Amino acid sequence: MAFFIMGCKEKPRTDHKEQAQTEQALPSNNSASLLGETWCFAERTPSSITEGAYNYHLVRLQQQPAEAIAGVVYHYPYGTDSFRASVKGILSPEDQTINATLHGYAEGEHYTQQAKYRLTSKALELNYKTPQGEMATLPRVSCAAFDSLLTEYRQGVFKNLINTTDRTRLKQLDSLKAYGFTEDDLEKVKFMERAIDLDRDPATMEYLIYLMDPSLCGTGGCNLLVVDSENNIVADITVTKLPIYTVIEDVEKTMNSKGQWKDLFVYSKGMRRLSPENGVYPTNPSVEEEIMMEQLTAFPENYLLLMDHFD
């Protein structure tokens, strides 16, 4: 799995003592009982770049019928580009090895890579060596712990990407005043704002503003504003709940599609695809094409989480 450390400024170092030898493989007679089972492996290690910062490496695998394996990989070395991938493979019951294909995204490009794992009772062997010459492993954890670490990582990212306090842009949106918002209202309204390139033009940034105000929210959700680089509201999307996703594309594809706005995926009685026409998004997502949440979460190389609630 050399790819996981390619292009990284630092390699993850564990904050626990290296084991003298790898764990014994799970016995082959366990494979039948593991049908449909989900295995989670995760590790958070201190960054050597910044004190108090961490690297995250997470793998979730699920056994499918006929010894097939599906899963996801997230590798986030602090201060470097991240790698995310979906996994498809076959489990060999005899030695508990998994021959897998990873479809991943890193450094602005999509990749396809072959990988080999080995399941043990306490860890996942990653089939590459640590700087100390040991077989790299990822500890087995509960899937609740996996989810907790992934959420922790995302909280750290969102802390820097989502604005909830600076109301400068909010107050510049004349349309909000036309909706009846006063200056005092705009000082109090709860909101999330994220800058993102939606029109595939790296020279400009667009903004998603999620308004959580009683006057705009109901049982179906709240209003999501799409704002262009000149602070014009180009879409007012109603009955929207979090999470919100968009597509992940290669840099080359983005450059070749300049001016064509990206799809958004929002929750409105299920996840819905919002495909813009001439830069205009549908205003009622509840009647748009439904997308299974698993379609978004199972392919992290293709879909980027933009907003969510993290308590």
Report on the architecture of this protein.
This protein is mainly beta. The chain has two domains: 2-159, no CATH class; 164-307, no CATH class. The chain is built from six helices and 17 strands. The protein has helices at 143-161, 168-172, 174-178, 183-188, 251-256, 293-297; strands at residues 38-46, 54-63, 68-76, 83-92, 97-106, 109-119, 123-129, 135-141, 162-163, 190-196, 206-212, 222-227, 233-247, 264-267, 271-274, 290-291, 303-307. Strands 9, 10, 11, 12, 13, 14, 15, 16 and 17 form a nine-stranded antiparallel beta sheet that branches. An eight-stranded antiparallel barrel has the order 1-2-3-4-5-6-7-8. Strand 14 and strand 15 form a beta hairpin. The chain starts with 37 loop residues before the first strand and ends with a strand. Residues 1-35 have low confidence and may be disordered.
Helix percent reads 10-25%
- The H-and-E topology, N to C, reads as EEEEEEEEHEHHHEEEEHEEEHE
| Anisotropy-based shape | elongated
Distance from first to last alpha carbon: 34 Å
Strand percentage? 35-45%
Q: Whole-number average pLDDT?
A: 87
Determine the structural class based on helices, strands and strand pairing: mainly beta
- Unreliable stretches (pLDDT < 50, length at least 5) are 1-35
The total beta strand count reads: 17
Q: How would a textbook summarize the main sheet?
A: 9 strands, antiparallel
What is the tally of helical segments? 6
CA radius of gyration: 22 Å
What's the number of structural domains?
2
